[in-house]
């Protein structure tokens, strides 16, 4: 197992570099020029705009070849005008790039580092995603178990229809419906935008916490229902794959109650699909949902990635892609290790 773990960790390094290369090329080849977007302002003459565009390109190396731009992004040498003297810089900032933990700065706000902004927005995305994932498992596992145990009953049919309907509903549409139904235009029970009211700073500790909870109810509901539907079907499939096994019939023949058969024998051997799905959880946990965070005006990672795409913020997009890639690889590794731990018959060579 240790050799397998070390081998997987070793292979993650070239995989991550490959992901950075692909995301770099995709962003550079996509339509839109960040220099043109930020090069001019209303009222400026054509000559001024041209000078600003050229200055922006030179500052961010957009006028250099793609290999130079990629090496500048990787580091550890800064190849910009203020970079390492070896590459024509003035030595003000000799080191930079991914290899030294520098994800660059935003174009729109040059004083804001992408790494720092990702850390700030993770404090919004991770708690929301974690709550939604916990709710999904807490609801989906019992629902899947009951649907499998009561196969062929009206409950199983109703649960299947409900699950398929939930899985098919578009997130943005559900979010808008929830806003219309529970917001000021409907019942008026819940706030629909942001994480706090405007006067939240004047509230006390408990009042501020309650305000935060009320703002998070609708986004968490949108983040939960789709994964809940998928996980419940996985749980049901795992149960049905083992319900007719010899060890289950033997347990029933020994006189064990149905509850004991399900909890002690059937359930431990039916949760493997859920551990396989766990490889997809970590990217969701840190990557957030672009649609949910945009609809509910939440300053999370998903919305940050969307704003970066809109504004052709190369460093922002590549930073969010890299973060999601790392979490995807770590998630699949944890999934494989948990699968082997739960089922000793599985060994990784």
Could you characterize the architecture of this molecule?
It is globular, with a radius of gyration of 25 Å. It has a domain of about 170 residues: MetI-like (MetI-like fold). About 0% of the residues have low confidence. With about 350 residues, it is mainly alpha-helical. It is built from 15 helices and no strands. It is about 65% helix and about 0% strand. The N and C termini lie close together (about 10 Å).
Indicate the structural class: mainly alpha
**Uncertain runs with pLDDT below 50, 5 residues or more?**
41-45
Q: Whole-number radius of gyration? A: 25 Å
Average pLDDT over all residues: 79
Distance between the amino and carboxyl termini: 8 Å
CATH superfamily of the domain at 114-273 and 292-300: MetI-like
SS elements, strand count: 0
* Portion in helices: 55-70%
Kindly identify the CATH topology of the domain at 114-273 and 292-300.
MetI-like fold
Strand content: under 5%
Give the CATH level 1 class of the domain at 114-273 and 292-300: Mainly Alpha
List the secondary-structure elements in sequence, H or E.
HHHHHHHHHHHHHHH
Strand count, sense and barrel status of the largest sheet are:
none
CATH architecture of the domain at 114-273 and 292-300: Orthogonal Bundle
User: What is the general shape?
Assistant: globular
Count of helical regions = 15
Task: Break the fold down into its secondary structure elements and pairings.
Elements: H1 2-29, H2 34-38, H3 46-59, H4 66-74, H5 114-149, H6 154-168, H7 171-182, H8 205-242, H9 246-253, H10 258-266, H11 272-277, H12 281-287, H13 290-295, H14 301-310, H15 314-342
